[in-house]
Amino acid sequence: MSADTVIIGGGLHGGSVAVHLASRGVSCIVLEKDHVGRHASGVNAGGVRTLGRALPEIPIAKASRELWHNIRDLVDDDCGFVPSGQVKVAETEDELAVLQARSQQVRKLGFDHEQIIDQKTLRELLPAISDQCIGGMVVYGDGHANPYRTTCAFKYKAEALGEQFFEGIAATQIERHAGLWQISTAHGQFEAPALVNCAGAWGGQVAEILGERVPVKAQAPMLMITERMAPFVKPVVVAQGRALSFKQFDNGTVLIGGGRFGKANIQLNEAQLDTAGLTANARAAISIFPIMQKATIVRCWAGIEGEMPDGIPIIGPSRQENAFHCFGFSGHGFQLAPAVGSIIADLVTTGTTELPIEAFRIDRF
Predict the structure, then answer these.
(1) Which of 13, 231, 323, 339 has the fewest CB atoms within 10 Å, measured from its CB?
(2) Mean pLDDT of 113-127
(3) Same domain, 294 and 316
């Protein structure tokens, strides 16, 4: 079976690339070894943030946020996107000073989206916040979305535009002959002039087949969710001095995560939880929001994600002809996906893109 492009990996980034290629008239075959949304794409925290981005990511994150605010126009679904804002809280003067320095650094680069707020404004935004929190940083217009719904929405839109997804089909061999990439699977061979590696935590394996070894590490970010509680917080909340990501949904449930990892085993295709890490996250949530002492955790889980040593992804062309990489998002690729899909589609069709991607090249390692 053949198409103009084969995409390995049917998660959110693979789906985004497929949608953007379809809009440019390029046919795709998307190969997903599990089911779409099985790992990081479908089970992450769903944060849609420009707040606190690594400096090279800011232009992409800003471009992507524009797409999020019009996401229905892109995929015929609002993806559960809520522009609730995101707040990073400071508990000490030293932490607030770090945020102020960051804000100044970002402004010098020409970006003004991150705003420093005092304790009074913090309490207006977060009435239930602990008394120990003295200020913070806010980005209005950031928010959150439903990760599984979003991943499926991109898949459904790509299929509606004529792209083909094959789930439960893993690539077993990748070769290039006579100007075509040939991908062998247990269910037959697929071929195309262009190849896109969106394989997430398995992206390093695909890159190595192409002769590009990179130090991607499989991680298992953990999350937990509570029973329903009376509404007490609207923005997404993170902390400067703690590993914490915190949000309350419209149904009252509270999602807690951030910076704590289970054990990822990509050979067995599974992730194991670490109860000590979950406990630490729960304690951090209680410290920031004392009301959480009354909360009951009902479910915990982890997804498998690829993490790079420098914490930023690989986005851009391979050293091999007509091959492109898009993986290693290190736990924060959800918000970037709409714009990254457009970047890869530009590279496939024109060889260039307007957004800066030099920092994400694969040969930086």
Answers:
(1) 231
(2) 98
(3) no
Is residue 254 within 8 Å of 298, Cβ to Cβ?
Answer: no
* CB of 220 closer than 8 Å to CB of 261: yes
| Mean pLDDT across 88-115 | 98
* DSSP type of residue 294: G
| pLDDT score at 176 | 96
In 3D space, the residue among 330, 327, 272, 322 whose CA is nearest the CA of residue 301 turns out to be 272
Domain count, the chain: 2
pLDDT of residue 348: 98
Cβ neighbors of 138 (< 8 A, separation 6 or more) are 51, 85, 86, 87, 88, 114, 115, 117, 121, 125, 235
Q: Quick one: which of 310, 352, 349, 350 has its CA closest to 57?
A: 310
Domain of residue 171: give its range.
5-76+146-214+310-364
Select from 159, 191, 158 the least CA-distant residue to 175: 191
pLDDT grade, residue 343 (50/70/90)? very high
pLDDT of residue 238: 97
The tokens for 220 are 């298992």
Residue 326 to residue 341: CA distance in whole angstroms? 9
